[in-house]
Amino acid sequence: METISILGCGWLGLPLAEYLKKCGYKVKGSTRTREELTVLESKGIEPSLLVLDPNVHGENLDNFFKSDVLIIDFPPERRDDIVTYHGLQVNSLIEEIKLSSIEKVVFVSSTSIYPDLNREVSEEETKAPSKSSGKALLIVEELLNNCDEFKTTVLRFAGLIGYDRKPGRFLAGKRELANGEAPVNLIHRDDCISIIHKIIERDIWGDTFNACADLHPKRKDYYINHANKLGLTPPTFIEPENYSYKIVSSEKLKKRLDYKYKFPDPFEIDDD
């Protein structure tokens, strides 16, 4: 079995590490804080302290980069120079990868790279991102894909939900929100973990995939429903004549991986 290092053992990365370990892989994980090192160690995950500010530094990094597969899972920081800074972070990381035994990379990206085009969007979309975070991610995708020393597969996840990320709390009590008629693009954490595992298991590299639940309920219906489930004050929405949206297509991933979503309908996800 391959050795896998996960850069960013947070809300997604930590349960992913635990899952892959149960599948028989040797798993290494990084965190930015010393307090989390003991958490990783207690779960049988080889811990390393890794900070990107924007240069790579930390502790036990030689061991961390002695792997076959690297999963990169950290979002762009919210700052004025987000595009430039995130690029510098990943450029520094790329130099470390080039010096390592890593041959395969999974990059956790986001469907925020797609602007609202009022239609379905697929991986072949060429319209430039409108959000700074999307611009930063797209630049990083290109940086990784342009490296010949290793192969990268990019996973563009929709909005992450599940477990303590309860949709009913996201907009509860808010008033006069826009885009109530817009369809939502969401994915459960369990599906994210299963998809990453399948990419590694099936050795699928050098490609880009959207990952989003099959169904896209209206924003107002979805968040009002989930707020009511938790007994919270539901949000209210204005009803403009026009609204902006996108529908993220996951057809490419489903066909290539022969994947069926565990949670194809976001309404099926409990807030309890």
Examine the secondary-structure arrangement and name the CATH architecture: 3-Layer(aba) Sandwich
Mean pLDDT: 96
In order across it, which strands form the biggest sheet? 4-3-2-1-5-6-8-11
Q: What is Rg?
A: 19 Å
Q: For the report, how would you describe the main beta sheet?
A: 8 strands, mixed
The structural class is alpha/beta
Q: Might you state the CATH topology name?
A: Rossmann fold
Describe it for me?
There is one protein chain. The chain has 272 residues and is an alpha/beta fold. The chain has one domain (3-161, 186-216, 246-268): NAD(P)-binding Rossmann-like Domain (Rossmann fold). Helix content is 32%, strand content 20%. The chain contains 9 helices and 12 strands.
Describe the SSE topology:
Elements: E1 3-7, H1 13-22, E2 26-31, H2 35-42, E3 46-52, E4 56-59, H3 61-64, E5 69-72, H4 82-98, E6 104-110, E7 120-121, H5 132-145, E8 151-157, E9 159-161, H6 167-170, E10 186-188, H7 189-201, E11 208-211, H8 219-229, E12 247-248, H9 251-257
Parallel strand pairs: 1-2, 1-5, 2-3, 5-6, 6-8, 7-12, 8-11, 9-10
Antiparallel strand pairs: 3-4
Helix pairs in contact: 4-5
Outline:
With 272 residues, the protein is of the alpha/beta class. 32% of the residues lie in helices and 20% in strands.
Task: Provide tags for this entry.
single chain, about 270 residues, Rossmann fold
